[in-house]
Design brief:
Elements lengths: L10 H13 L14 H21 L3 H19 L4 H11 L3 H23 L1 E2 L2 E2 L7 E2 H17 L3 H9 L3 H19 L1 H4 L4 E2 L4 H33 L15 H6 L4 H19 L7 H13 L9 H4 L15 H19 L11 H20 L4 H10 L3 H20 L13
Helix pairs in contact: 1-4, 2-3, 2-15, 3-7, 3-12, 3-15, 4-5, 4-18, 5-10, 5-12, 6-16, 6-18, 7-8, 7-15, 8-13, 8-16, 17-18
Length: 428
């Protein structure tokens, strides 16, 4: 998907969009990007319908079908707003524009407000729910740091890789393949690095109570909003809105056809992530499925027997390898995200894969994908399960992940010119 210079924008929004173009962000399609493409929409709906039928036939249950379609909703929201963690960090660290980052802060704040009462009650509508509360240690910090480097080199994070693949990015298909290879390699070598020093998991709710944890989290997020907005104002002379995009009119068709302001996506992602918690009983996750897919490939190819890898012998994972693909919620949600993005690209008239890749783009996807996969498994997740799920669950490990990933992003941004990504209008 080539990145065109955005049109129809003025003021801070135009400056933000131009900065995003130079740094390799997929800009949301403009109002006149093209006519609706029926076949990507039809293909996405056909696949979603067929999978839904297969799920029902397998006996997996209606919750699993709803989770597939929840993934599709997430993919549509991510695509229509070009909502990328990697791109957001890159633009903020490089140019000061913070709309992506402030939208993520809104998303986290809404998720905290939604998740905490449910987690405090322990169930929603009879469905037991739990958060992601993980230990804090060197493997978490090292994994997030590696992930941060990888997402800047590769051009996408966990969710970003999935939705750009669905949106027609050939380069990100390569990234996804090597994301899977890296995650599988981390699972295979787990015994060699899983013993790194660590501290016990820290739950804010368990330490200061749910009310106190909500207050602290929201106060930290409000402070972060103020700091990043202040930096943007100092560097650019203004603060771009996350609730509108230039002169684009808010109209009913925008919800379906796009583009969305970042703020819309923040609310949609928080709401759909909460729906995931209610339906699945735990927060939204992405990257463990990549290690699972790679391990299935290793087993079916006769290269090794992953059932004897210590990673898959852990009590929390021991039942995953024997599970059918249609019964694995994370797998189905990942497929849903890609199909939702495919439908969104068709609705926006923007599904135009670019098949030729430069040597720099190809090598960055290979190396970046490997780093993404290995780092995500080390860090117990990516920007979704570790950061989003961790912060929404009140776990301190989510904040540690963020700091380490930002440090890795800082390094990764400086490595991008090695691959020629910032010497031209790179495409994702």
């Amino acid at each position: 998907m080539d990145i065109a210079e955005p049109s129809g924008l003025t003021g801070a929004s135009k400056a933000e969009a131009l900065a995003a173009t130079r740094t390799g962000v997929i800009a949301p399609p403009a109002e006149n990007v093209g006519s609706l493409q029926a076949w990507p929409v039809g293909l996405a709906l056909l696949c979603l319908g067929s999978l839904s039928t297969a799920i029902v036939g397998s006996g997996a249950g209606w919750r699993t079908v709803l989770l597939l379609w929840t993934g599709a909703g997430l993919g549509l929201a991510l695509y229509h707003a070009a909502y990328g963690f990697a791109a957001g960090y890159r633009v903020f660290l490089g140019s000061g524009y913070s709309a992506h980052v402030r939208a993520q802060i809104v998303m986290l704040a809404v998720a905290v407000a939604l998740f905490y009462p449910a987690l405090s009650a322990g169930s929603v509508l009879g469905q037991p729910v739990r958060g992601f509360i993980f230990p804090i240690g060197l493997e978490l910090a090292a994994g997030a740091f590696i992930f941060g480097i990888g997402m800047q080199i590769a051009g996408g994070c966990g969710s970003g890789t999935l939705y750009t693949v669905g949106g027609g990015s050939v380069r990100m298909v390569v990234t996804l393949l090597f994301f899977i290879v890296g995650a599988t390699g981390a699972a295979w070598s787990w015994e060699g690095w899983s013993g790194l020093p660590r501290l016990p998991a820290v739950s804010l709710a368990g330490s200061i109570g749910f009310a106190g944890a909500v207050a602290v989290q929201l106060a930290v997020l409000a402070a972060l909003w103020w700091l990043v907005a202040r930096r943007e104002r100092m560097l650019t002379g203004g603060v771009a809105s996350i609730w509108r995009r230039g002169q684009l009119r808010t109209r009913p068709a925008t919800l379906l056809l796009g583009p969305w302001p970042y703020g819309w996506a923040a609310l949609a992602l928080a709401g759909l992530a909460f729906l995931t918690l209610v339906l699945a009983g735990r927060p939204w996750g992405i990257t463990q499925a990549f290690a699972l897919w790679g391990s299935w490939a290793v087993e079916r190819g006769g290269f090794d027997d992953p059932h004897f890898w210590p990673y898959w012998e852990e009590p929390t994972r021991v039942d995953l390898l024997p599970r059918a693909a249609l019964a694995d919620v994370t797998t189905l949600m990942n497929i849903g995200v890609a199909l939702g993005a495919l439908a969104a690209a068709g609705l926006a008239g923007a599904f135009r894969p670019r098949w030729r890749l430069t040597a720099g783009e190809l090598s960055s996807s290979v190396i970046g994908g490997l780093l993404l996969g290995f780092g995500a498994i080390m860090a117990t997740g990516c920007n979704i399960s570790a950061l989003f799920g961790g912060v929404a669950s009140g776990s301190l490990h989510g904040w540690v992940w963020l700091v380490a990933a930002l440090a890795g992003s800082f390094v990764g941004i400086r490595l991008r010119p090695v691959f020629g990504l910032d010497d031209r209008r790179a495409s994702l």
